[in-house]
Amino acid sequence: MKKHTGNRWSVLAALFITAIISAKAQQWNSVELSRKVTHPQPMTGLVLWPDEARDRNATYGGSITLEFSYCLPCKVVTGCKADGTIEYDWTWFENILNDVAGRGHQLIARFRYEYPSGTDVDGQKGTTAVPAYIKQRSDYNETYSSNPGGDGPTYYADWSNEELKRFTLQFYKDFCQRYAHDKRLAFLEVGFGHWSEYHIYGTTLQLGRNFPSKAFQKEFFLTMSDVSDGLPWLVSIDAADDEYSPVVDDNEMTALQFGLFDDSFMHKNHEIGSNDGYNEECWNAIGKQTRWKTGVCGGEISYYKDSDQKNFLNPAGMYGHTWEEQAAKYHITFMIANDAPRGSYGTAQRFREATMASGYHLRVKDCQTDGKATRLLVTNEGIAPLYRDAFFAVGTTRAEETLKGLLPNEEKWFEIKAALKDADDLTIVSDIILDSQEIEFDADVEGVDAISNINSDGGATTTLLRLDGTKADNTTKGIIIENKNGKTRKILR
Known about the structure:
Layout: H1 5-26, E1 29-30, E2 33-35, E3 45-48, H2 50-55, H3 57-60, E4 66-71, E5 77-80, E6 86-88, H4 91-101, E7 106-111, H5 132-135, E8 143-145, E9 154-156, H6 162-179, E10 185-189, H7 214-227, E11 233-236, H8 251-254, E12 259-265, H9 278-287, E13 297-301, H10 308-311, H11 323-329, E14 334-336, H12 348-356, E15 362-369, E16 374-380, E17 391-394, E18 397-398, E19 411-416, E20 426-429, E21 442-445, E22 452-454, E23 464-466, E24 471-472, E25 478-482, E26 489-492
Parallel strand pairs: 3-4, 3-14, 4-7, 7-10, 10-11, 11-12, 12-13, 15-21, 23-26
Antiparallel strand pairs: 1-15, 2-21, 5-6, 8-9, 15-16, 16-19, 17-18, 17-20, 22-25, 23-24, 25-26
């Protein structure tokens, strides 16, 4: 009997090719993806106050993403009902949010009661921002210091008053309920004492009188943890001082996910080993070198010397340290530097560079699709994680997992239940950045074309390789897999 071996091999080859194509359709294939981070990323970088940002918007507006403002409870509280319900008119705060957002930036807000020599409550120096309905109570009595620490007249909230304590807790509950997911607000700084910086230097400390008792402070921290609802909140590194605060010695409090701000960052004696080192000691005591992983870290460049803010952007450094070095050491996400533009180093371009040296910086290391879904290998090349939710998306389909919390140098796969057919369809979306803002990412991924047939007269122009790596001539029949750069071809036989 004559054996039709040629036909048999043709059938077997066809079955093999079909199996290969079928298997390939179920495999993850790399997709070409090229992107570049081109501008400061939302919720990161150097920060100006609204007045300065407004005046310099034409030159510095694209170099920053954040602005900072002190905020006053007395400007938004109109009274209290008999049942204890606080009455509000948020217009004053809304105007700040809208002003900042109008420049394409988000707000860092810090509510305060005391501000030495501050006149923004009623035009008188040092008036507290405690709501009027509390001040009108017969059992509420503030104290006064004429020139604490040389900073000028200062009145102090009466922390023996039960209504002030109740109000403070309720105020932040109400605030977070209203603004925790507001796109115009990035972060919230909280605290007590001068400028809410957790001290009343120059005035004799009386816990429970001119400063909250340690018991109330713990209640406040626990309340903030309960009500913040995803809004990152920070306290001053001065809360590490056990004369004022119970935080460092209380495991329940240190376990909370709050951030830290340092309002004399990079001053001459900031570091351990200098003449003082108090700041770094506070960072270590309350941050334990890990707080930055879950709590945003920031602050303000030192005003210890008038020249500090003007010189810290010197590429050669200030007091032996560069901005980039210190930002990386403390995993800084933002830093107020309102006077820096007045110095020779604080140009708009240098602001941009310094901003992009802070916070997160995302890179896609691999991008794959199986025709039904897309998966991404992502790393963070920045110095801090994202502290708010953001998601990779293909079109309108988001990844199930958030980018929030991806640590520097960490790699993680993210899967999206949609196939990426056009690389431009891949974006990062977030419900808590402005519509005008964009989270970017770097990518330089080489793609692989879908399987295609080649004929004996195909005349390949590049080297053809079998899967075992041996060369095949240009007349070989089979299926070709080609890198999109056209440099390497492989034939399935």
